[in-house]
Design the sequence.
């Protein structure tokens, strides 16, 4: 047995699933379960699955807790918490002889495991129907051998004061209705908060200097809007929801023209509407940061599920040729760090920046350590020094012109969507058009040179492995875990434009047998690699709206790595 | 560029490319005079004015006046103007837009700006034709108008933009005519000084594709004191409906409606400055999580 495998065998981890109808608070219940394990020092990850409807249907959350960082789910679960019959029927393949099933016996008549009469419990405790989740949480704590005090602390942190008492009573009923099956021990590690990728991206934007966030609701990016709107006063920012995505990006550009750092958030359909504003940002050299959260398309596609299918859209959206920064963080830590970095770099180089997320990352949650997520370096915009006549588009060696903002004494700021001269006046003269285009290209070169000092390509696992898995964005952690099982290493490009050619060459030296794992149907990052002259190897693709589970990906990798 | 505060100093050296006889010349001159006078009378530095343009002949004004400007894209100047006002409430933000630009492509933004009552001024250069794209009909072209895209005549009725703006909640609504220049300057000054969303539909001729000079000269009249009550919705609506941009009727110019309402931007607290403080807030929020 290798040292790695011995290590895997001694690792502690638990998988739990809670399921029920939409409207029953499954997401919140899942986060409470994550909080329960987090308070014991575990690192947690939660995947939340829900169809696009308000009430009914089937929602479920898989929570995984481990004694090491994780960021993916497994198929099998140790505990299944079923608020309805559909949860048991849907998740049969996740259950084996060692799985503990806890179900609502008011809904499920002949279940195996522990049946809790939730209707009776809430009637007797005179509690609201939503407290069913607390009974489940109580039962889970008992099954997992977790002290009642820890359970109560988690509820105190999660439940508003006026509902706390009834939730504690209902949780106690769940706790006493079952018996201890296994024993989750306290770990010697700090309890970390559990954040979604959307929350982490929002925090990163503020860390990078965000003044105003502008967005029109669209799943799965709305979490950023809700989080920042809910915390706007705490964070000292402004949050605006205008009439549509066209207005969103134009408002952001108006804010940028006036010197405020603005970011916007959307998904594919909204980004379609933003593309004219994106080109405007490119031509007028006004910074804007776009959180682009992918879901399956084309068109409305599958609104509440996941995909990595908008990479080339993000890379190529807009008419004309202009530089942009495109980054694809792989987890909430990277989402926070790269959102801050993208916002700062968009201002330093006066280019649009796109943070490419997806539903798995945006709405998935994991243990979050802010110190582990601090972006690499600070950047301030280049400001006009006030000497001589102001020229908004002054031709400089690195292509970046000093900024001034309207209202400043003694300057006139003329920004322009047309081809323009250095002062911002419209031009159609051949030599001025050429000079402007070359200025934009010089800026692209400067941004690329800047990024050489960043970890634009990340590698994980044994450097001398003869197999390499390429992945991007949210597939990072599932690949890291699956790679350990098949003796491969993982290479993840974080910056996708400007593409870090040198860092990529270096990371892929001696890659051996190569496989590219993506949540899309055509292998979009593989195509990008081929465009830059690199061989992406064979593709493993999943395009059913669901992310890979660790065991599922391991099986696919074993088929390819023969 | 260093601004010159005099009206003459506001002209840039950029070569003017409007057609001879274009209504834009009087808009340019009266707008220049209006902001120079406001600057002097109210003590507002020229640097505090920002112009926005969409796409069309009107937008060239961005190049011809030495004032802060954001030359935007077709129909989109209003959301950008809203962003500018949110970021800096000391600025006087004036959108110059075209009738095709804002009543077709940008109508949603226009309605929402009126609904919000953000403190910007929208001046519509309404020549009732697409000039720069060579003569197609616009939302205010009369029924039967023969343009290059409608050679048999427009089958739709024109919209009455003043009626739309009144319904949308605009707090200041006026109409001007480019050949009544002194009246035009007063209309501009009043709209710019209005506290809230102000809207001016400016009838102008397109010398090349829609020269309505004789028609306008015969129909347009300046409203006098007592013609209507500008503080009353019903009074404004009645006057606004006197001419529907289609049938023959007297065409009133002047202010139709002017009321006070809270400003959109007052609903937001001003963000504190300082990156370090912002980062401290992020740190505290994470530490106190859930």
Sequence:
């Amino acid at each position: 047995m290798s040292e790695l495998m011995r290590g895997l065998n001694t690792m502690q981890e638990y998988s739990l699933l809670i399921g029920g109808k939409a409207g029953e608070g499954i997401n919140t219940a899942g986060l409470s379960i994550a909080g329960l394990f987090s308070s014991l020092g575990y690192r947690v990850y939660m995947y939340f699955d829900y169809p696009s409807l308000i009430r009914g249907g089937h929602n479920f959350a898989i929570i995984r807790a481990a004694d090491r960082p994780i960021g993916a789910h497994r198929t099998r679960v140790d505990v299944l918490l079923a608020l309805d019959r559909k949860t048991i029927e849907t998740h049969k393949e996740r259950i084996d002889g060692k799985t503990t099933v806890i179900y609502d016996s008011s809904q499920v008549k002949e279940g195996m495991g522990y049946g809790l009469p939730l209707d009776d419990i809430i009637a007797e405790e005179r509690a609201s129907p939503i407290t069913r989740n607390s009974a489940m949480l109580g039962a889970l704590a008992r099954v997992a051998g977790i002290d009642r005090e820890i359970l109560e602390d988690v509820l105190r942190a999660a439940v508003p004061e006026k509902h706390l008492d009834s939730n504690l009573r209902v949780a106690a009923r769940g706790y006493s209705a079952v018996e201890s099956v296994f024993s989750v021990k306290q770990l010697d590690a700090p309890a970390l908060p559990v954040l979604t990728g959307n929350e982490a991206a929002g925090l990163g934007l503020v860390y990078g200097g965000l003044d105003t966030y502008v967005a029109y609701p669209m799943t799965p990016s709305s979490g950023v809007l809700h989080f920042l709107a809910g915390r706007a006063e705490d964070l000292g920012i402004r949050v605006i929801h205008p009439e549509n995505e066209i207005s969103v990006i134009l408002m952001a550009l108006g804010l940028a023209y006036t010197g405020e750092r603005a970011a916007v958030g959307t998904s594919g359909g909204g980004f379609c509407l933003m593309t004219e504003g994106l080109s405007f940002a490119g031509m007028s050299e006004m910074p804007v940061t776009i959180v682009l959260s992918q879901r399956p398309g084309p068109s409305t596609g599958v609104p509440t599920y996941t995909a990595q299918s908008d990479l080339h859209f993000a890379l190529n959206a807009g008419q004309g040729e202009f530089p942009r920064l495109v980054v694809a963080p792989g987890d909430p830590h990277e989402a926070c760090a790269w959102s801050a970095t993208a916002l700062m770099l968009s201002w330093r180089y006066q280019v649009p920046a796109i943070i490419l997320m997806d539903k798995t990352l945006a709405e998935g949650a994991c243990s979050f350590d802010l110190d582990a997520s601090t972006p690499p370096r600070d950047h301030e915009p280049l400001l006009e020094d006030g000497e001589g006549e102001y020229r908004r588009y002054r031709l400089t060696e690195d292509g970046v012109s000093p900024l001034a903002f309207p209202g400043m004494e003694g300057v006139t700021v003329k920004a322009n969507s047309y081809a323009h001269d250095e002062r911002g006046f419209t031009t159609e003269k051949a030599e001025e058009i050429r000079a402007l285009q070359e200025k934009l290209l010089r800026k692209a070169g400067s941004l690329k040179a800047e990024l050489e000092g960043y970890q634009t390509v990340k590698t994980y696992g044994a450097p001398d492995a003869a197999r390499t898995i390429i992945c991007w964005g949210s597939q990072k952690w599932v690949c890291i875990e699956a790679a350990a099982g098949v003796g491969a290493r993982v290479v993840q490009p974080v910056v996708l434009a400007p593409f870090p050619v040198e860092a990529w060459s270096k990371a892929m030296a001696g890659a051996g047998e190569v496989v590219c794992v993506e949540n899309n149907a055509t292998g979009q990052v593989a195509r990008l690699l081929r465009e830059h002259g690199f061989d992406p190897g064979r593709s493993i693709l999943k395009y059913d709206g669901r992310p890979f589970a660790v065991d599922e990906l391991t099986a696919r990798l074993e088929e390819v790595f023969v | 560029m260093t601004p010159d505060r005099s009206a003459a100093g506001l002209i840039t050296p950029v070569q003017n490319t409007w057609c001879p006889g274009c209504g834009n010349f009087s808009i340019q001159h009266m707008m220049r005079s209006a902001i120079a006078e406001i600057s002097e009378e109210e003590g507002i530095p020229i640097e505090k004015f920002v112009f926005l343009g969409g796409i069309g002949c009107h937008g060239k004004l961005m190049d011809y006046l030495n004032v802060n400007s954001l030359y935007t894209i077709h129909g989109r100047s209003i959301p950008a103007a809203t962003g500018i006002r949110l970021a800096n409430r000391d600025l006087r933000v004036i959108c110059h837009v075209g009738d095709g630009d804002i009543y077709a492509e940008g109508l949603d933004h226009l309605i929402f700006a009126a609904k919000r009552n953000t403190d910007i001024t929208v001046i519509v250069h309404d020549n009732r034709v697409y000039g720069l794209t060579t003569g197609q009909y616009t939302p205010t072209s009369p029924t039967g108008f023969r343009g290059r895209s409608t050679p048999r005549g427009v089958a739709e009725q024109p919209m009455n933009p003043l009626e739309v703006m009144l319904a949308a909640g605009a707090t200041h609504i006026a109409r001007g005519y480019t050949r009544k220049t002194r009246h035009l300057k007063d209309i501009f000054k009043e709209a710019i000084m209005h506290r809230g969303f102000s809207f001016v539909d400016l009838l102008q001729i397109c010398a090349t594709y829609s020269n309505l000079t004789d028609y306008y000269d015969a129909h347009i009249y300046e409203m006098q004191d007592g013609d209507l009550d500008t503080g009353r919705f019903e009074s404004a609506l009645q006057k606004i409906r006197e001419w529907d941009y289609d049938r023959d009727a007297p065409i009133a110019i002047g202010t139709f409606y002017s009321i006070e309402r809270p400003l959109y931007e007052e609903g937001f607290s001003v963000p504190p400055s300082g990156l370090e403080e912002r980062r401290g807030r992020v740190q505290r929020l994470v530490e106190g999580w859930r």
Summary: The two ends of chain A are 20 Å apart (CA to CA). The mean pLDDT of chain A is 96.
